[in-house]
């Protein structure tokens, strides 16, 4: 009994596997008897119903598509706005970078210019220091020359006294000489005194000639000193870029101004060296 049931089940499974798909295809090809029994009006209503359902489905899909398109359009507009904002940010950033580059270039140019100005000022200060040392030496030399000139002025003042004394002795020498040649006996006791007077006369005459010669040399030297002092004074005036009311003949005041200029340069140089030492320590 059970064996028969199993054989029937196996046979049914066999036919189902062998002919199931074919039977399904044949069923799809041939219309159902119930469907054939339906009237055309019923089929038309069903077709309309299916068409309505299809139309509703299409409308639903259309609305869904429109909503999606609207969403996409909004998204596209948002992306456009963000793109413009991004372009604006990029433009600002590029402008910021460009401005920073320009500032950096200006800063570099300014730093280079300041370094060049500093080097130029150091060169000018070094040159001024050399000129200051030269001016100091020239000032010392001129001061010594002026002292000699002051002594010369005193000598010239006293030269008139020497000259009058020399003239008197010359006249006395001539008178005594003529008297000795005519009659030497009355002057014999004063012979030694006469010789002393003659010797003094010759000494004073020699000194007078030396004074005249020295005075000529000192006068020439004095003119040279005054010209050198005037040249230095004019150089200092050009450096100071100002006009002065000092007389061109007042050598002492010119030397005072030169000395003051040298002192100012010395103070400036000392201040520069002090700042350099402070920067080096920092």
Automatic annotation (TrEMBL):
Pfam families: DUF4200 (PF13863)
One GO cellular component, as annotated: cilium
GO BP terms, alphabetized: spermatid development
Keywords associated with the record: Cell projection, Cilium, Coiled coil
Organism, as annotated: Cricetulus griseus (Chinese hamster)
Entry-linked PANTHER family: COILED-COIL DOMAIN-CONTAINING PROTEIN 42 (PTHR21683:SF8), COILED-COIL DOMAIN-CONTAINING PROTEIN 42 LIKE-2-LIKE-RELATED (PTHR21683)
Protein name per its UniProtKB record: Coiled-coil domain-containing protein 42A
Residue runs in coiled coils: 105-145
Residues annotated as domain DUF4200: 44-157
Location in the cell: Cell projection, Cilium
Domain of life (superkingdom): Eukaryota
């Amino acid at each position: 009994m059970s064996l028969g049931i199993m054989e029937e089940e196996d046979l049914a499974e066999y036919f189902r596997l062998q002919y199931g798909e074919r039977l399904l295809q044949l069923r799809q090809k041939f219309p159902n008897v119930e469907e054939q029994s339906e009237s055309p009006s019923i089929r038309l209503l069903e077709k309309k119903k299916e068409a309505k359902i299809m139309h509703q489905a299409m409308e639903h899909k259309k609305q869904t598509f429109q909503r999606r398109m609207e969403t996409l359009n909004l998204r596209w507009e948002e992306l456009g706005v963000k793109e413009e904002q991004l372009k604006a940010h990029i433009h600002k950033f590029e402008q910021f970078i460009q401005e920073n580059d320009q500032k950096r270039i200006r800063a570099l140019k300014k730093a280079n210019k300041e370094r060049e100005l500093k080097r130029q000022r150091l060169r000018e200060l070094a040159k001024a220091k050399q000129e200051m040392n030269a001016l100091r030496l020239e000032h010392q030399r001129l001061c010594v020359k002026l002292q000699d000139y002051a002594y010369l002025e005193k000598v010239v003042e006293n030269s008139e006294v020497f000259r009058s004394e020399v003239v008197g002795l010359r006249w006395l020498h001539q008178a005594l000489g003529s008297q000795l040649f005519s009659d030497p006996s009355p002057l014999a006791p004063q012979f030694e005194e006469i010789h002393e007077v003659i010797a003094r006369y010759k000494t004073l005459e020699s000194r007078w000639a030396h004074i005249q010669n020295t005075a000529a040399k000192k006068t020439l030297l004095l003119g040279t000193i005054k010209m050198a002092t005037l040249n230095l004074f004019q150089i200092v005036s050009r450096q100071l870029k100002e006009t002065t009311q000092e007389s061109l003949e007042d050598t002492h005041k010119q030397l005072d101004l030169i000395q003051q200029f040298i002192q100012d340069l010395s103070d400036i140089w000392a201040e520069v060296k002090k700042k350099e030492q402070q920067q080096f320590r920092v």
